[in-house]
Every structure is written in C-alpha cells, then in structure tokens.
Specification:
Helix 3 packs parallel to helix 8. The protein folds into 3 domains: 116 residues, Butyryl-Coa Dehydrogenase, subunit A, domain 1 (Orthogonal Bundle); 119 residues, Butyryl-CoA Dehydrogenase, subunit A, domain 2 (Beta Barrel); 147 residues, Butyryl-CoA Dehydrogenase, subunit A, domain 3. The strands form 3 sheets. The chain has a 4-stranded mixed beta sheet. The protein is α+β, with helices and mostly antiparallel strands. Strand 9 and strand 10 form a beta hairpin.
C-alpha cells in the first residue's frame, strides 16, 4: 500500500494560524497567565486531593466553552479541529499541566462518546455533561496488571476488566482500573473491558458508559503524585455493575478499534500538553538569565547560557512543528499515518524533559526551592509524560510495528 500523501500547494500544511486560531491562542494564554498559574501554585499542596482542583476556574473554562469545545456546534460544542485542541491544551499547560490534563481528559471522552453513541445514549450523556459546568469525564484503560500494553496494536493483549452480557441484554462489569486521570471526581467514565476473551483487544474489547452513581462503582484510592497535582488519578473497582444495553458504546467487541479511529489526535494533544509546560520553563529561564547577575554580568551575556537557551528554543520549535503537522494531517491527509501521533508525543515529551532540566541549570540551586522557583514544578510535571498517555518505548514499539506492517504491504 503506497502511503505517500497526495498533498498539493492548495491543500498542504499551512505553517501559521488563522485569525480564529490566533484569537483562541491569545485568549487561553492570557487566562493561563492571569488566572491559572498562580491559582495552581496556591492549590498544589492542599492536604485534601479534592481541594487541589481549581473548581472556580473549571466553571470559568466551561463558561468560555473550552470544556465542551470538542463536541459539534449543533449540540453546544465548538466543533474544534485537532489543531484547535492542540492549541488549547498547550496554552492551558502553559499555566498548569494538571489543569490542562483535567480538560484534555474531558475532550477525549466527549469525542469517543459522541462518536460511538446515538439516540437516547447520546442524549443522556450530553444532558449530563453539557448541563453541569463541573462535570468531569474520565477514560479508563490502565489496570493493575497492564499499563501501556494497549498502545501496541496486535499481539495477544487483553484487558483484565471483563463485561459479560446476560440473557436479558444487560452487561455485568467487573474489574479494576488504576492511575486514571479525573477518576476520583469524574461524573461519567468511559470504561474499556474485555467482552470476548478469545480475541485480542482490538477485536475483543468493548467500551461502556459508567456513571459515578452506578451501584457497584467505587473509587478505592486517590493516588498521591509529585506531578500534575491539579487533577487527581484514582484506582477504581467495578463490582457487578449492571449496565443496560444502551450503555455500550458502538459495536460490541469493537470499542477499542472504534475509539482509536476517533482519537487519532490523542497522543498529539499529549505532546502539546507537555510542550506547553516546557515552554513555560524556557520563558522563566530566559527572564532569569536577563535579570540575574553572575560573574559581574547578566547570565544571558555568558556564552554557555546563551547556547543553552538557544538549544531549548530550537527543540521546542521542532516539537511544535511536528505536533502541528500531525494535527493538520488528522483533518486533511486521506492517508493519515498513525505513526505521526506517536512520534509527536515521544519527541515532545523528551524535548520537554530536556528543556525543563536545562532551565533548572540556568537557575542553579534556586531550582530546588519549591516555594521560591516554579521551574521545579515544571520538571516534576513534565516527568509525568514520559509515561502518561503511553510510555515512550511503547510508542516507539508502536511506530516500529506499523512500519513493519507498511513494509510488508508494500512488498
């Protein structure tokens, strides 16, 4: 199969932003600087996990339409493109990664549910989600026995969480998930479970809507983390939860495959999230280098510091270029190459870690004073995306497997 994209000057990538996208970028960036960053710093170490979430800012984001921007306009959403989603989460993460992930989880789940549901299932979901500005969504993949296994297509992977259909048509869900973003506070969860253990995940997994008030659902632990403290990750138990037939999303046994098709941009927005936080670290280091005098002159006048900052700039720009190209391809390339999304996430996550650590070097010993310097928070946050949304090597193996498949198809 020839994977060469048929792009022309008229439909090829535009390496810039339209006026609407520039407006969105400017508005979210202003919100992050004026409202989000200081609020996140204030709440980060609250003793109770629930109190670390900026509920007042979630209300504001809902009022601005960003929490529901991934839904079509005709149902109250913003009809956002993959590039819009990437811009939104990058600029939110520029203020606080935890809050950005809080919103990004909602964006992912709303697109899966809307894309795989119809009729009363969709109507009831939309009523819950759009009607409550504090309604959070959660997508449930990771289990105690499995982590990034689902990233690798093919193979013999199966979820341990199981759902069996009874003769009356209802499904009974049992199992555990853990490390799941938004889970402790989510009102609606999209849960992936094995429904045909004879088949691997891609052809034996179904997706279900679970509501937090369903009998048998329990959050049994809220994980303590050093990263992304603006949202909570939880461990959950599903104990004989009876789900009516209309809680099944899409076709039975094809929920994983269906969600993968809808969420081409999932890893892309993950890359955009870590990029936003790394950009904040770079800008903080640049400002410090301009004002901090060392050796009788500002740090920026020293060649080694200038080279360090220049390298940070180069890497951030390269990561953004790959993210934007992948996001553009989601909407416009008929031969979309799924390797792009994994490549964008892998590259951005590693660039982000190098950038944050380099920024810490510019600050020297001040970088480990957590109440005096934000750069250590940026380091901690960016560490999470070496594993969040799939471990780095899992994405590399995914790229390798898809490359092997393409080579076989091309003969």
């Amino acid at each position: 199969m020839n994977r060469t994209a048929t792009l022309t000057a008229e439909n090829g990538p535009f390496f810039g932003l339209t006026p609407d996208l520039l407006d969105l970028q400017s508005e979210v960036r202003s919100f992050s600087l004026r409202r989000l960053r200081d609020r996140a710093r204030e709440l980060e170490w609250e003793p109770k996990p629930h109190d670390r979430i900026a509920w007042d800012l979630l209300q504001e984001v809902s009022d601005r339409g960003w929490r529901t921007i991934g839904l079509p306009r005709e149902v109250g959403g913003g009809g956002a493109s993959a590039l819009e989603l990437a811009l939104l989460v990058e600029e939110l993460a520029y203020g606080d990664m935890g809050f950005a992930v809080l919103i990004d989880q909602c964006l992912k789940v709303q697109r899966i549910v809307y894309g795989l549901s119809s009729g009363t299932t969709r109507e009831r979901f939309l009523e819950r989600f759009t009607g409550d500005p504090h309604c959070l969504l959660s997508i449930c993949f990771t289990e105690p026995e499995t982590s990034s296994d689902y990233i690798i297509d093919g193979g013999d992977f199966r979820f341990r969480t199981r759902a069996e259909q009874r003769p009356d048509g209802n499904w009974v869900l049992n199992g555990y998930k853990r490390f799941v973003s938004n889970a402790p506070e989510a009102s609606v969860l999209c849960v992936f479970a094995c429904t045909d253990e004879r088949r691997p995940a891609v052809s034996g997994t179904s997706a279900f809507l679970v509501y937090a008030d369903d009998p048998g659902f329990e959050v049994i632990e809220t994980h303590e983390k050093m990263s992304q403290r603006g949202n909570n990750n939880g461990r959950m138990r599903f104990d004989d939860i009876v789900l009516p037939p209309d809680r099944l999303l899409g076709e039975a046994h094809h929920g994983y495959a269906g969600s993968r098709q809808i969420l081409k941009e999932s890893a892309i927005t993950a890359g955009a999230t870590t990029l936003g936080t790394a950009r904040a670290a770079y800008e903080l280091a640049l400002e410090h280098a301009r004002t901090r005098v060392q050796g009788g002159a500002p740090l920026f006048s020293h060649a080694n510091v200038r080279c360090r900052l220049a390298e940070m700039y180069c890497e951030l720009e390269s990561a953004r270029s790959l993210i934007w190209r992948a996001a553009w391809a989601v909407e416009h390339d008929p031969n979309y190459d799924y390797r792009l999304s994994s490549a964008a996430k892998v590259h951005a996550a590693e660039v982000a870690m190098r950038t944050c650590l380099s920024a810490a070097e510019v600050f020297g010993g001040l970088s480990i004073m957590y109440r005096e310097c934000d750069v250590n928070k940026f380091v901690r946050d960016c560490m999470s995306f070496l594993h969040s949304d799939g471990a780095q090597d899992s994405h590399r193996l995914r790229i390798a497997a898809m490359t092997e498949e393409m080579l076989a198809e091309d003969g």
